[in-house]
Design goal:
Layout lengths: L2 E6 L4 E3 L3 E9 L12 E16 L12 H8 L13 E5 L3 E9 L4 E9 L8 E2 L3 E12 L6 E10 L26 H22 L4 E7 L2 E8 L3 E3 L3 E7 L7 E14 L12 E11 L5 E7 L8 E2 L3 E14 L7 E3 L8 E3 L5 E13 L3 H5 L7 E5 L1
Parallel strand pairs: 2-10, 13-22
Antiparallel strand pairs: 1-3, 1-23, 3-7, 4-5, 4-6, 4-9, 8-9, 9-10, 11-12, 12-14, 14-17, 15-16, 15-19, 18-19, 19-22, 20-21
Length: 387
Amino acid sequence: MIEVLAKLGRGPVFLAGEVLECVITFTNPLSASSTSASSEMLAWASAQIHCQFHASENRVALPPSDGSKHDVQAENETVFVPNRGERGQCILSTPPKILFCDLRLDPGESKSYSYCETLPIDGPPSFRGQSVKYVYKLTIGCQRVNSPIKLLRVPFRVLVLHGLKDYQFPQDEAVAPSNPFLEEEEGLKKDSRLADLATELLMVATSRRSLHLYNISNTRGKVGTFCIFKTVYKIGEDVIGTFNFSEGDIPCLQFSVSLQTEESIQEEFQRRRGQPVSFSTHARHQEACLHTAQSSFSLPIPLSSTPGFTTNIVSLKWRLHFEFVTSGESAGTCFVRGSQSEAVTWTGVEQMEVDTFSWDLPIKVLPTNPILASYVSQFSSTNSITI
């Protein structure tokens, strides 16, 4: 028996273009003093990253793929196929890397190997939607002699930040501060610069503030105004907006604001022509606002949500969806006097004529620092199997 333990050192969330590093440890758990202790042998072990794509057959019409070669490999239990037994299509994979050949472990002995691979910068982000899914996994394959391959899958999340692909690192870094007493591998150095660059680009894009004012009105007149200071956010931030109903001609009885994503399939891949898009609500604020001059809301963008993106098959956009309930009467007639005695009570009217209307405001949602997103990730940094 051999225990295989895979650990992602920095956490299970990465930016496309970063280097994923995983330490894989093989252990013979039996102690030397055990009566049944014996040396264990593994013929080889290999590791590979792949992105699995799955689409809902009811919503997405994909062209048939030629999987004959893949099927032949899948039938052979001695061939390393990282996505063996999984649903969907493998749309992206890195070259497999051999960790070792002919490993022998004495009782109580363990050996560790480091796997490093740069995540493709032009791949899709991790996404679990109503129509499609993009799932990234690091698969480690191990095999004993004359035995089938055993697979250890390590799921992780990938965030994509547009603009990193086109950035060229300067060739001359002589003016950059450096420590001559520290040796740093070129790959890790570039990976660190990539993370710093992403943080800087996100900070610049989401820190710009300018007042955006919108008049809220329906066919009968003006209801109020809405104010928001920016329309570009990172996941994990709060969307804050304010209302001013004091200048409205039409009394607003109630409003609600929903933070939503809009998942739409590209026209050439739609199962039915003109099929509706799919909406998902991530946060919602509802408030009764009759006789309210000003109000506000704050909606958090979950760190676990997917920033907006577009591929050749699907597009994901963010928006604020507003719903307003207005009165068909003036504000002064919304209440009636209930008693003529000295103790005067006021009660609301039993029936009221109302109008409802909605409004959508597009916003842009970008990724955040992957270390921050790792704190709420559903994936574990450590995975293991026994073979």
